Amino acid sequence: MDAPRVTKPSPESFRESHRRSSRWLALAVVGTVVGVVLLYGAFSNASLMPTQQPVLSPEKPALHEGNIVIAVARTPGGPTEWVNWAQVISYLSEALGQPVVVRYLTEEDEAAGVIASEHVDLAFVCAQQYLDLVESGHARGLCTPLMNGTATSQSLLVVGVDSEFRSFADLRGHWVAVSDKSSLGGVAYMQYLADSSDVQAETYFSEIQFGDTMEANIIDLREGLIDATVVNSVQVNVDTLGLRVIEASPYFGNPPIVVSTHVSEELAERVQSILLSFDARSQLPDDSAIDGFVVLDPDEYDFANVLRVACDDHVHP
């Protein structure tokens, strides 16, 4: 027997429910970010205490004048790892022997432009931003984080665990939600699936909800306001959230760390060496998914470029 369908809420009730979800999500995000900033400030202040001056090797003089500016546009692991990424940055600052300035870039569509046009030395970016920055010549890849032992992730089309849908083909005439176009774990994969099925996404679904975060879309899916959404495997744990995967992309590289092209090769190599030797087990909590870093392999981002092209071929609100 087919699983019962969820009755669609009226547009008014949908919008009100969505506003409530968005408000709660915004409050949660703001609270978490403030906590991360405060925690990072504590780490930075501790690293500058007079009794804890960094010891520089005679062969390793200061390689960079002034503070090192690190932009954070995307880190893998989702909100549960934000505090741990602050600790990684603190570790890097101490190992370099100088403080860093952290810039949090909340507008993903604008992040690559900020990194390219303003003074940024290192950046945590999503795969699409990495590809854009390399293509424009403003940055080069440095390291890829290992998350739960792997340097790659997937885009996933997911539904509720009890949903009747089994594949992309089952979603004709139904409601989906996807995050903004800067995220390859969002609208890009939906467009790739539509192109692969030789259909127009804009007419294939009865409704496409654009622009909300991955977390907000998951809330809407679990509340029955939409039928499916797209997530990234390194950002969410579908099993613990009561979701079921009905389509999965080929693997591509995790959100990497890039270095701006104005940074000296000597400093870039030192940063890379520090990150490659980072011992996550001794530096981070046992429940952290961050396992360390590997040298970025450009070939691992081939499918990310396929998704980028699929997204760029379409215009969205």
Model description:
This protein has 317 residues and is α/β, with parallel strands linked by helices. Helix content is 38%, strand content 19%. It has helices spanning 11-47, 82-96, 108-117, 127-136, 187-196, 201-204, 214-222, 265-276, 280-283, 302-312; strands at 68-72, 100-104, 122-124, 139-147, 152-153, 155-160, 175-178, 207-210, 228-232, 243-248, 252-253, 257-260, 290-295. β1 (68-72), α2 (82-96) and β2 form a beta-alpha-beta unit. α1 (11-47) runs parallel beside α2 (82-96), α3 packs parallel to α4 and α5 (187-196) crosses α10. The longest helix is centred in the N-terminal third of the chain and has 37 residues, at 11-47. The radius of gyration is 21 Å and the shape is globular. Mean pLDDT is 82; it is low at 1-63.
Summarize the structure.
This protein has helices at residues 11-47, 82-96, 108-117, 127-136, 187-196, 201-204, 214-222, 265-276, 280-283, 302-312, and strands at residues 68-72, 100-104, 122-124, 139-147, 152-153, 155-160, 175-178, 207-210, 228-232, 243-248, 252-253, 257-260, 290-295.
Question: What is the number of helical segments per DSSP (H or I, 4+ residues)?
Answer: 10
Strand content: 15-25%
Radius of gyration: 21 Å
Structural class call reads alpha/beta
Strand segment count: 13
Strand order of the largest sheet: 2-1-3-12-4-13
Question: What is the helix fraction of residues, given as a range?
Answer: 25-40%
Q: How would you spell out the order of helices and strands?
A: HEHEHEHEEEEHHEHEEEEHHEH
Question: Overall pLDDT, averaged?
Answer: 82
Low-confidence stretches: 1-63
